Amino acid sequence: MIILVTIFVVSIVFYLYFKVRILNYKNPLYMEYTNGKARIALGLFISTFGINAYGFYQTQFALFICIIFLALGIAQLTHGYKVFKHYREEIIKLQDAGELD
């Protein structure tokens, strides 16, 4: 159970870090790239929160909430990974072409 709490706390810290980090960028490409990383952290946060809630209460209602949180968390995680992967490749292409600093 301590592992879930650790992942829970670390993922929310990373989510907040990436969301604040977006404010430092002027280039929308870097902003979307960082937002993809933030979505991955948010998905992990939501998923571990749902699992932890079920582990604490262990009722049928908590299981229902856990399933909903897992579905939302996995959706955020996969969408964030797709965004992260897409913009990473775009940044690499532009850096190789010398158009991006």
TrEMBL record:
GO terms for biological process: proteolysis. The chain crosses the membrane at residues 6-24, 36-55, 61-84. Keywords: Hydrolase, Membrane, Protease, Transmembrane, Transmembrane helix. GO terms for molecular function: peptidase activity. This is Abi (CAAX) family protease. Pfam families: YtpI.
